[in-house]
Amino acid sequence: MDNNLAELKGKRIGFAMTGSFCTFARVLKAVQALADAGAAVQPILSYASAQSDTRFMKAGELAGHLKRITGSEPWTTLQQVEPIGPGRKVDMLIMAPATGNSMAKLARGIADTPALLAVKSALRNGCPVVIAVSTNDGLAAAAQNIGILLSRKHIYFVPFGQDDPIGKPTSLVARMESIPETAAMAFLGEQVQPILV
Ligand SMILES: Cc1cc2nc3c(=O)[nH]c(=O)nc-3n(C[C@H](O)[C@H](O)[C@H](O)COP(=O)(O)O)c2cc1C
Predict the structure, then answer these.
(1) What is the structure's pLDDT at 141?
(2) Which of 15, 21, 113 has most ligand 1 atoms within 8 Å of CB, for mutation?
(3) How much is the pTM?
(4) What are 131's strand-pairing partners?
């Protein structure tokens, strides 16, 4: 195991997935890597992720994969995630993938899905929050929100870049395979570099 990843052993990580369905398969590999590194991962789903059958994955398949990898049923309601704050139930919150929609809300203090309330609850306790961008409007409408989040305390970014500059000139996607390393560095209070890849 990468030396860095030793940092993850025994840590309680809330893992919130929002509705960038095309990245789910890659993100699940990162969840597996966190579990392999010894983290206790609690999956959390936005309403869109919990309820949508898409061409990329059916909602039931997503929940099944997460249960198999982490041993936990995903939390899919506000009531399930609310105790994260008062009960200090996680050491870190990862939002991966993070949609343009969820980043816009997070930047503006809106917490109306389980994924967003989980982030809010973690930040309330000063826990690190790791974000893995995935949105077609990353260099358009979402750019200002990414900028707001980049400058916010306790928030760390999984390195990201343009996935298809010619075909989708404003699209940004994080390197999902770098989630474990970004999380390990965030526990040390450091942003992994370079952010832009
Ligand atoms: C098949 C499919 C793929 C999508 N892919 C993305 C995506 O990659 N990035 C994104 O920001 N939104 C994407 N969306 C739109 C979001 O799912 C939508 O904005 C939703 O309201 C997000 O809710 P959430 O952020 O609470 O999960 C996609 C929607 C569908 C149906």
Answers:
(1) 98
(2) 21
(3) 0.98
(4) 95, 157
